[in-house]
Amino acid sequence: MSVAKALTVRQATMRDVDAMLEIINEYARQGLMLPRTKLSVCENLQSFIVAHDGDTVVGVAGLHILWEDLAEIRSLAIAEKAKGMGVGKHLVLHLVEQCRNLGIKRVLALTYQKAFFEKCGFWIVAKETLPQKVWKDCINCSKLPMCDEIAMIFETV
C-alpha cells in the first residue's frame, strides 16, 4: 500500500517534535529551507500539521498567518522514504482548506519547488507585492539581500 493511501493528516503534538525536526533540518542541511530549533517548533506547535503512516511521521507543514488576508505555508518537508507519494500535496491542500475555513483569501509559499506548487494551484508573484512578509520576516533573514526563493500564491476564494 502506498503512503498516500494510508496517510493521515492531523495537528502536530509534542510527541511529533523530534521527528518533525529530523525531517525539516535534513532539508535545511541541503540548503532547501531554513533550519528550525526545537524551541521554535515547540513555541509554534499549534501552527503545524503532520502526515503519518501508522506511527511514523512522514511529512510536516506549518501555517503562519501574516495578515487578515494572507497566510504562509512554512517548513513543508517530506521524509525521504515518502517522497513522490502525494504526501506534500496532501499537506498543502489541507492547509489551503484551513485557510478557507479561517476566511484567509491568499496562501503564500516561498519555495525552490516551483513545479510542485504549480501542481497545487499556486502561481508566481513578485516578492515586492507581499509587504506583510517582507517587513515581518524577510527583513531579519540572512538570505534577504540575495534571496533566491520564488514567491507563489494560491487564492482560496
TrEMBL record:
Pfam families: Acetyltransf_1 (PF00583). SUPFAM superfamilies: Acyl-CoA N-acyltransferases (Nat). Signal peptide: none annotated. Residues 7-151 form the N-acetyltransferase domain. Keywords: Acyltransferase, Transferase. GO terms for molecular function: acyltransferase activity, transferring groups other than amino-acyl groups. This is N-acetyltransferase.
